[in-house]
Amino acid sequence: MPSFDAIARTFESATRTISLAGRTVLPVDTNPVPAEWEHITKIDPEEAKKLPLLFPLYLQHTGALEVGGSKDVTGQNTEETLELVSGRPRPAIQEPSGVRQVTERTREQADYFAVPQVLNGDTEAIVGTLGSGIEYLREELGPEYLDDKLPIPLGEGLERRVVSLFSAWTLQEAVFEAYIIMNLDSAAAREASVTEDDLLSPQEAKQRAMVAETVFESEIVYLEYSGTFGGEEAVEILEDVSDALSWSRLWYGGGLDSRENVEAVLEAGADAVVVGNVFHEIADEEADLCADAVEALSADATHGDIESWLSDECDVAETSAAEYLSTIPSLSNPTARAREYLVSTIEAALALEALRSELDGEVTSEAELATALDRRDELPGGIELSNVLGDDEQSFPRDLVAGLLAEDLDLDAEALPVEHISVA
């Protein structure tokens, strides 16, 4: 009679064989990263990187939200960013650049957990960082999780095995992003110690990608130019890498702010584009626009008044709003949509300012603010946001307005982390 160990080994071998068949032979797609994600929005938790006031309007057009960055990212600001964006209105991926950015709360908030691997960096970038991450899961996050969830101690031996299971399960549930970093003048390159000697030719990139798919089983191969468009060089690499991959998704990120560049990398073989900087630039621009609008327009300005004022103030086609929306292949008229969203944002900002002035000195507590908001039939931005959010997120417009007003009126209140929103 076979031993329990032998049965377990046979079962694991059979499971492994089925998994390999699903990836290579069978006409099924077993990659957990959805194939329909053609556009990903990268959201940086760094304090300086703000979100547009009515950010769900823009994010309704993307496939998923990837939360992470290479500079000034902490567990706290990652939690805050995920609290704002997760599920509003798209699934969120946490992509940590450091182990302590992963907390029990971020694991609950994010729909996906992505582990970066740098294929052309130093040993620390692909092995050391992952090793320190496993150590953190086993020695800190895992025990803290058990202490929080279990009513009684398990005992040292059993607890160690359960923590090992927790760590293995966390990594098993994760998706791995195998990066090829090609812009030396970027935080990502500095973090991974990518030098001139580490830049890859198309053939070398193809070979690294094959290792990522076959040996590392990376769900994503990510060609990263980080803030700079890779142009013809990126197209050549994507063409070679795309031909070599059969299971891993191929993503491109870097300098995407036009329909032309997006179409070039998708035609070269990328499964999805990742757009980041220009999304945060929307927030920077709208903060200035809204401040000017509050000075120039009255609180009862009509929709037409605001459209006319906006046309005088800027060329909408040249705004970051239009540039971001132009990177979404399914959107036919990004400039018209940008104008619509900017006008809605200015309307909301004017209404917020009027409401703040009305309540200033009248409310002194969170309870009084809640009562004042409950009396109103319509809140700033409420209709626009409610139209793009799911049924389980219909409280978000009110929570956002309450958070912004509590911050502005200096009230002690439990609120959303509105310091990450561009318009205060």
TrEMBL record:
One Gene Ontology molecular-function label: metal ion binding
Catalytic activity of the protein: sn-glycerol 1-phosphate + (2E,6E,10E)-geranylgeranyl diphosphate = sn-3-O-(geranylgeranyl)glycerol 1-phosphate + diphosphate
Keyword Lipid biosynthesis attached: yes
Pfam family, one: PcrB
BP GO annotations: glycerophospholipid biosynthetic process
Keywords: Lipid biosynthesis, Lipid metabolism, Magnesium, Metal-binding, Phospholipid biosynthesis, Phospholipid metabolism, Transferase
Keyword Transferase: yes
Enzyme Commission number(s): 2.5.1.41
Designated name of the protein: phosphoglycerol geranylgeranyltransferase
Organism for this UniProt entry: Halorhabdus utahensis (strain DSM 12940 / JCM 11049 / AX-2)
